[in-house]
Amino acid sequence: MPSKVVIPVNGNMSSRRVSVQKVDSILSNRVKGNDEQYLVRWTAPSASTNPPLSWHSIHELARCLEHVQDYLESRQKSLKTLPAHVQTSKKRKSPDSEPEFDRGTSRVVDRRLEETGRTSMSRSPSVSSTSPVGPIDVYNGVLETDSNGFVFCRSELGPEIAQIKIEHVPTPEMLRAQRSKVDHADILIRAEYSRRLHVVPGEKIHLVNIYDSATPSLRFRYIADYVLGDGVFKADLDTQEGCQKCSPHMGRDIGCEYTKRCGCLEYAAVNEAAITEPEMRSEYDKAKATGGSLVNFPKRFPYYAEGTKRQRAGTLVPFYLDSRRPIYECNDKCRCGPLCRNKNVQFGRSVQVEIFKTGSGRGWGLRCKQPLYQGQFIDTYRGEIITDTEASRREAAADSKTKASYLYSLDKFAESEGIDDADIYVVDGEFMGGPTKFMNHCCEPNCRQYTVSYNKHDPRVYDIAFFACRDIPAGEELTFDYLDKEEGEEIDDPGQDAIPCLCGAAKCRKWLWT
Ligand SMILES: C[S@@+](CC[C@H](N)C(=O)[O-])C[C@H]1O[C@@H](n2cnc3c(N)ncnc32)[C@H](O)[C@@H]1O
């Protein structure tokens, strides 16, 4: 059985935590004494016009900060539209004001609080049954604790229980109190986001906002790998082949780079410069002219090896920099070993990045904390992989066409592999993903996205990796072109729904996508 909770009049209950599972939403805020408090609406067993509500100190809401953040966002919007008389009323009460409630209940509620005062005396000798009674803290229910000691409010009727109808919330009194400070909430939300950032693998990620007190959504979950949604299947690991003709000792102990027959590079771009024998050249010309197999020709290795200039090691070679060809990396089943230079993106981000508020109408952005070299790998785009149907449903459900979009189609091989549009998977980075979710579009970008595959037999699930397409000084925003067009591919004219582009580049196309 849940146990009844002591309601503090003045006691120190900083260790009390509300049970996040039972919170529906936050409805209002106030400051009482020096304490920032929030009105929690609790889940009721049925759709009720009188769900249980209770006020809680921000410190009790440490596990419900997502709800507090949702509330602060909607409060921000509604404060802007609040009628002037509500904003500036001379008659307004202090933020500590008690919300209006059914007068008939005040006496019994007072009694409840007096009883509580007696109970908490051992913690706070200053509190006694003769203490002035504070504002009502609970409506339509009673506070209890669950078996883990978390507080929640349960529906209950009775003469001792203050009643308030949900359609009367926020009351005019509450609306006035809503203007009171929310600094502690802002600080706790920021601290919680930073805590989550610090456990993201790779170099530490920083968060900077010099414009306001906003923090990116706590509803976002950082993940290191894709999460597969319903109806999404990644090719079985059995279909993944490793290169078998290579070994770690093929040259300078770096694996595949010196082989012209690396199985992983089977479908990679042909290295025409390496076709020196006349017989192979004529076979190659014939295969190219007839659309024949290019499997047995020497291939282009994607990355510079160690031993080249320091700033070049591991960066993309010019051929890949300038083309949109997919990169095929070696994998765990290869014989080339862990140091193979054809393994890069799969090790994840190793550069320091910073999430920052752009202050230019583009929301948050991502920038590098260190200088980056042309061709340097930055990070992959992560998220939930969903079906095309689910992606369309999420797009249609978005409440506004100007809402930020985080959908990225995995359609690189659709044409060559004959994959129907309806069977193309989509990565949604809105609710889970990595810091690259914050990369904005620029018509003259400094990064480019590449297809990186570790399983040449899976054309539907692969990585999207961002590389610097020129040297980038520390502190510059990282951007890419959202229209991931192949060379020479035409760009449609903007439609009516085209989103205006605010990249500010000299050659700006003026819209994000059609
Ligand atoms: C993947 S998100 C990028 C991160 C986003 N700025 C945020 O705050 O979460 C893509 C969204 O950012 C905004 N955006 C990105 N680049 C933009 C640009 N050049 N001009 C205007 N809005 C841009 C658009 O709302 C777009 O749908």
Automatic annotation (TrEMBL):
GO cellular component terms, alphabetically, are:
chromosome; nucleus
Which GO BP terms, alphabetically?
Answer: methylation
The signal peptide annotation in the UniProt record is: none
- Identify the keywords attached in UniProt to this record, alphabetized: Chromosome, Metal-binding, Methyltransferase, S-adenosyl-L-methionine, Transferase, Zinc
The primary site where this protein sits is nucleus
Which segments show compositional bias classed as Low complexity?
118-132
> Which Pfam family, any one, appears in the UniProt record?
SET
Residue stretches making up the SET domain? 351-483
**Which ranges are annotated Basic and acidic residues under compositional bias?**
94-117
Tell where it localizes.
Chromosome
Start and end residues of each Post-SET domain? 497-513
**Gene3D superfamilies from the xrefs?**
2.40.50.40, SET domain
Record PANTHER family: HISTONE-LYSINE N-METHYLTRANSFERASE SET-23, HISTONE-LYSINE N-METHYLTRANSFERASE SUV39H
Q: How does it assemble?
A: Component of the NuA4 histone acetyltransferase complex.
Name by which UniProt lists this protein:
SET domain-containing protein
Origin organism is: Massarina eburnea CBS 473.64
